[in-house]
Amino acid sequence: MKLGRLNHIGIATPSIAASIAYYRDVMGATKIHDPFDLPAQGVKVCFVDTPGENGTAGTQIELIEPLGADSPIHGFIAKNPAGGQHHMCYEVADIHTARGWFEGQGKRILGPTRIGAHGTPIFFLHPKDMNGVLTEIMEVADGH
């Protein structure tokens, strides 16, 4: 199993609109995607692009806002009313190989493999097994 690049950092926020204004007005982000609801995961999502080297794509910021009290990040926002870093996401070429490898390493996988906000298969690893960081593993096709 080979771990790929850091695809995005998930930032939980009580207000995507306020976070968009922050990344645009304070951080100078110039590429902010339109927010969209992802009901299957109980969140509203907005991606903010950062530039990479030599015109390549950089790491994205994934803003996530809970869609109601049943959202899996509702509790995170309740404990952190201003929001904060929620997870980090790494790319892999094959989600099934990666899942088997992490399971073989004794890492706890949180829930089934499912389709994530980028439209590709994902799963999450328990933060207690990943140096205290909730870690998302995401399959990418042809390197992106």
TrEMBL record:
InterPro entries: Glyas_Bleomycin-R_OHBP_Dase (IPR029068), MeMalonyl-CoA_epimerase (IPR017515), MMCE/EMCE_epimerase (IPR051785), VOC_core (IPR037523). Keywords: Isomerase, Metal-binding. Belongs to the methylmalonyl-CoA epimerase family. This is Methylmalonyl-CoA/ethylmalonyl-CoA epimerase. It comes from Sphingobium boeckii. One of its GO terms (biological process) is L-methylmalonyl-CoA metabolic process. One of its GO terms (molecular function) is metal ion binding. Its EC number is 5.1.99.1. Signal peptide: none annotated. It holds the Pfam family Glyoxalase_4. Residues 5-140 form the VOC domain.
